[in-house]
Amino acid sequence: MNSPSMSFQQRVSHALADGQLRIALDRTTERFTSNRVAGLASLPDADAVRDCARSIRLHTLSKLDDYLEQFEANVTSVGGQVHWASDAQEANEIVLDLARSRSVKRVVKSKSMVSEETELNQALISGGLDVVESDLGEYIIQLAGETPSHIIAPAVHKTREQVGQLLADKLGVPMTDDPVEMTATARSALRDVFLQSEMGISGVNFGVASTGSLAIVTNEGNASLTVTAPRIHVAMMGIERIVPTLDDLAVMLLVLARSATGQKLTVYTDLLTGPRRGDPDGPEELHVVLLDNGRSRLIGTEVSEVLACIRCGACLNACPVYQQIGGHAYGSVYSGPIGAVLTPSLDREGPWHVLPEASSLCGACREVCPVRIDIPRMLLALRAETVHSGKGNRWVRVGFWLYRIAATKPWLFRCGVSVVRQLTKMFFVNGWLLRLPSPLPSWTRSREFPVIASRTFSEEMRDREKGSGDE
Ligand code: SF4
User: Fold this and answer.
1) What is the domain count for the chain?
2) Are 246 and 311 found together in one domain?
3) Distance (Å) from CA 340 to ligand 1 centroid
4) Ligand 1 within 6 A of 338 CB?
5) How far apart are CA 127 and CA 123, in angstroms?
6) Which of 269, 386, 411, 421 has minimal Cβ neighbours within 10 Å of its Cβ?
7) CA distances in angstroms from 341 to 7, 298, 330, 348, listed in the order given
């Protein structure tokens, strides 16, 4: 599904033809969406909290360099080390060097979208390391040799029946589609991995500038074990994931889980401040890899607001396009409405200019976003950029070029309307065209096209004016 050789249209066709995917997406996106509504209803004055969360994120981005320096100073003051990575390759090399120089053989990971972005697993495995994902969804897709299809639910594209079969095939356990039994199977397979790994790698939901703390939220407790069991911990974090203070973090946590799964809080919220310092557990070494990878370039641009995202996934669940095609069709790590902005913005050279088209601009993403990111506005800005750069669809370009000629010459426009009206009359059924001629048949594949009205608006108005003049 993620093959780089497939075009976006091919991946979409593939997804639409997948009946199992439709079942899996329906089950999950509907549940997440209704849970979110209930979750926010449990928060007094949720709109005000969302406004507050938005202003914290935008304020942080407006002074990001200051907060990053403060964060680095505080991580260092509590015994951690900060590593700056300008791109994915540098980030992976930093982690690989840390592992090699400390004779690490086995790595356990908790969920990290930044590490998916840098393709860290592939880099570590090529470097001879054994890497195991401990988030249940990530573990499932690692067994399946796939990539995540949702920001917070990586295996959302799989039905529980498919997961049961996968576990049976890969782990030799009896087939079951009972989620409790499947979780117990994964749990027992992973327990030894935590104990045997020398290095743990996690993502970071928020880094707190005033204390140098790392906030990591999970529902399975796997981040707690990833952080505390191995002797070295590496946290992968995008540079934008900073909040100024612990009070600001508290506001973010009020809306994060509610928007993601409808929970008031995730089951586990880990706050890691430095490595162990006389504590009975915790890592001996703490490293934070701060990844730029195109983010700093976005500040001050039309799409800078995308950096305010707190990766709750609500916009994916609400998006009518994502609900149909799932995450893999986007072809990138970040999918759905936020991915359609983030991916082409971060990777200017990649084949992503088509992603902003994957939206009906209905505004559902903006409606549900806990920090009120105006995704439709940015999608339009990216579409405009694509048109100006000449990368847009050739047929659309030709169509608008013809329309401009006709629309600026009234006599030509009238002639054109009359010719098209006569043509459509030849093919309509009950006032609708069932199939448009090439190159437009895709439009009528899933809906009908109305026949052009027998009289245009201008003709009607002219007749009316004539009639009232005669009176
Ligand atoms: S854009 Fe908003 S809704 Fe979408 S993942 Fe980010 S924070 Fe959540």
Assistant:
1) 3
2) no
3) 12
4) yes
5) 6
6) 411
7) 18, 11, 11, 11
DSSP-derived 3-state class of residue 132: strand
Question: What is the domain extent for residue 357?
Answer: 303-388
Question: Model-level pTM?
Answer: 0.89
Integer Cα distance of 43 and 47 in angstroms: 9
Please indicate, yes or no, whether residues 73 and 211 belong to a single structural domain of this protein.
Answer: yes
Q: Based on the fold, state whether residues 291 and 319 are members of the same structural domain.
A: no
Summarised one tens digit per residue, pLDDT across range 282-332 is 999 999 999 999 999 999 999 999 999 999 999 999 999 999 999 999 999
- Does any domain span residue 1? no
How many whole angstroms from 422 Cα to the centroid of ligand 1?
A: 48
The CATH number given to whatever domain includes residue 285 is 3.40.50.10420
Same domain for 185 and 285, yes or no, is yes
Q: What separation in Å is there between the alpha carbon of 436 and the centre of ligand 1? A: 37
- Condensed to tens digits (0 to 9), the pLDDT of residues 238-278 reads 999 999 999 999 999 999 999 999 999 999 999 999 999 98
Indicate whether residue 378 lines ligand 1 (CB < 6 A): no
